Amino acid sequence: MSGLLTALLNFFTNHFNATKLILYGLFVFVLPVVLWNIFVEMVEVVLGLLNFYFSGINPSLGGITLPVSQFGSLAVWMVGQLRIPEALVALVSGLTIRITVDFVMRVLLR
Predict the structure, then answer these.
(1) This model's pTM is above 0.85
(2) How many structural domains compose the chain?
(3) 88 in any annotated domain
(4) CA dihedral 76, 77, 79, 83 (to 10 degrees)
């Protein structure tokens, strides 16, 4: 009887450790990639909308280019030069890893 109990305990312990390892790997390696892709898609949509709204010539002004379009282009250029999207993704990834590790330490490793 004790052999059966020991075998069951070993199976569940090994299975639980493997599950924890897989979940930890998914949260640390897969979740930041998914967040990166979501953030890149959001930035592409916003930049596409800005490009659509601020590009070209305004016919109501008699064919004069909007100064706002030049300002919008300057802002997009500055964001690209300062690498703000990459910095935000690094920040979000770091926060995600911290929250995940705290969750794993508090809930799964009790």
Answers:
(1) no
(2) 1
(3) yes
(4) 140
